[in-house]
Amino acid sequence: MTWKLTKSELDHENLLINESLLSLGNGYLGVRGNFEEGYKPGFSSIRGTYINAFHDDIEITYGEKLFGFPDKQQKILNLIDGQGIEIYLDGEQFSMFEGEVLSCERNLHMDKGYAERIVHWRSPKGKEVNIHFRRLISFARKELFAIDVKITPLHGVQQIKIFSQINGDVSNFVDKEDPRLASGHAKRLDISEVRQQDGFSIVKNTTYATKLEVACVASTSITAETHEHKYEQTEYGIGESYVYSSNEPLQFTKYNVYTDSLRHGEPVVEKAVAIQQQLRTISFQELLQEQKEYLDAFWKTSDVEIDGDAKIQEGIRFNLFQLLQSVGKDPASNIAAKGLSGEGYEGHYFWDTEIYIFPVFLMTNPEIAKNLLLHRYSILDSARERAKTMGHEKGALFPWRTITGAESSAFFPAGTAQYHISADIAYSYIQYHLVTNDDEFLKKYGAEVLFETARLWADTGHMRDGKFRIDDVTGPDEYTCIVNNNYYTNAMAKHNLLWAAKVYQWFKEHDSEGLQQLQGRLQLTENEVTDWQDAGENMYLPYDESEKISAQDDSFLQKARWDLENTPEEKFPLLLNYHPLTLYRYQVCKQADTVLAHFLLEDLQDFETIENSYNYYEQITTHDSSLSSCVHSIMASKLGYEEKAYDYFIETARLDLENTHKNTKDGLHMANMGGTWLGIVYGFAGLRVKEAGLSLAPSLPKEWNSYTFHMQYQGRLIRVHKAKESVSYLLVEGDGLTILHHTKPVHLEQGNEVRVV
């Protein structure tokens, strides 16, 4: 049962939540889990179809606009609705809100890649029918969203009418009360083409500002001979109806193909029609088989098996499946904070990708991880321009939130000021190199990103009293903004600078000609590299002698503590109830900051400092961000705080399934989903990837009997199985390898399982 998520609620609140939970996607295209026939008046729905990176530009309005503030923001758009299918029984329209729903089950099949809704319905006039909806978004054919409906009359039904439509009159969801959502500009698409051609229903839309085009071309088929089949065209879309006079079962199938000018170029309609032509001989059953084959390969390297807790097993598989559905699989896209499941954060890409999501794919599906890096590389020129706008002569400052490279954050203290994103991206390139040994990628892409981000730090910071300092930035904790020497930022910048210098030397030794070409293109001098080395080696990392902790920044420990214990529950999250300046004046953290730095770069501090820091910051962290609890879980595991590690992990594992942050309706929390995997693999299993190789320190929550996962490393596939009394390592594929198990070497050879007590 842990491969299937089942829902049956029909109440108002859960309908919206289930739209997110039952969403489908393939990294390119995503559709929320809406009812094909719609809802009745009074029941709200966020009816959504999205293409990763398909967006429009919107003018940002400021009361007071200063130099360097972004002029525009980018916004993912809700696209042409191809979900619509209405069913009529002798003139009575099927609805989940009228007549009597005798039974209803909605399932998301995570091993098979489709969703279904099985309904036994009695109409107000007593007609009875079983309706079985199945839908999928193809992993093998990225443009395809298919729906299959089997209708089985049970009592009193003489005639069935099916009305299918595609509708170009769509808009985005808005909520003016929640800063995590868009508050305007709901309508951003013009309907530029509506027609029917050769059995295809065609709608094309064009964005207002970017002039990007998107087309939906639909085809339908039915297994029964109909008495009537016709099309109805309006200025908004096309409807197609079938009338079937019989009480025998029938099957109706609808294929929606989406193409966009961002990837397909023009003409988008003709490209979609060509894909539809290829689908003429492909049955829905064959599509299901393709889904199963794709997912079998995915789960072979990605599954995490939990023995002892079915709810956690369901949670981790759900999280991994949704990450797969939302992660971009081409260099044109990344993974949005809400994936392709909703419109929260307007489809923007954040640092969430590199720190919380990228590691999942790096260790399980490195080709997907590579595409995420290629996307960042594709916006490197925009990052260079942003650095210049921010006053830097050289370097690359990656945008805090973006889709195609332009900064989309209008609130700079908690946006643009988070310079650490450039170091986060550099960190992911370094981790990719350590895990894959892909020297060609380093030469072609990685070195340039490391050099340009190192330049940013060299220009941002300054030497004082023999230490390199970085002033006026914001770290991960968005309740503390514009500070000097944020520990996380400085630590990550140090890592960035030293690795840039190291890669430069590696280049000199292994590809001097390539280095000369890159130097010429970047106008990079040896003196700059010396400066990187010097800045990295002398980076100031704030430390408080009295508490014996890493200080979050120069002023943080001087502030009064926020009284979290006596803050009313309804005042959380604090960002929705207090002015930012109020929060900035206190010791209170939205999320892990220094604790996160100690996870990512644990060798910069001794165990005592890491432990003291964890204990200190834990008391003042609200975990208002879904990015926070997983980090506290990981570090609690490292410190041996087993109960805390498990408690924090539980907060992440089913965050969306149980709607603990109360905003799952707006889309799923992708970074938290990655954090759940991190909590198991980097937390309980203690995985670390460093220059010296792989090390693990597995522990087992007392609530579980065992856990098992796989990981890929330098062309190898390794299985790790942790039971109550032992750990087993199996090199499934690849050359022999020595890893560290609790600091002791363990050698692995293919096919030979090594058990360590």
From TrEMBL:
EC number per UniProt: 2.4.1.64
Family label: Belongs to the glycosyl hydrolase 65 family.
Domain Glycoside hydrolase family 65 C-terminal per the UniProt entry, residue ranges: 687-748
Span of domain Glycoside hydrolase family 65 central catalytic: 317-677
PANTHER family referenced in this protein's UniProt entry, alphabetically: GLYCOSYL HYDROLASE-RELATED, MALTOSE PHOSPHORYLASE
Domain Glycoside hydrolase family 65 N-terminal stretches: 7-261
Protein name: Alpha,alpha-trehalose phosphorylase
Pfam short name (any one): Glyco_hydro_65C
Signal peptide: none
Superkingdom to which the source organism belongs: Bacteria
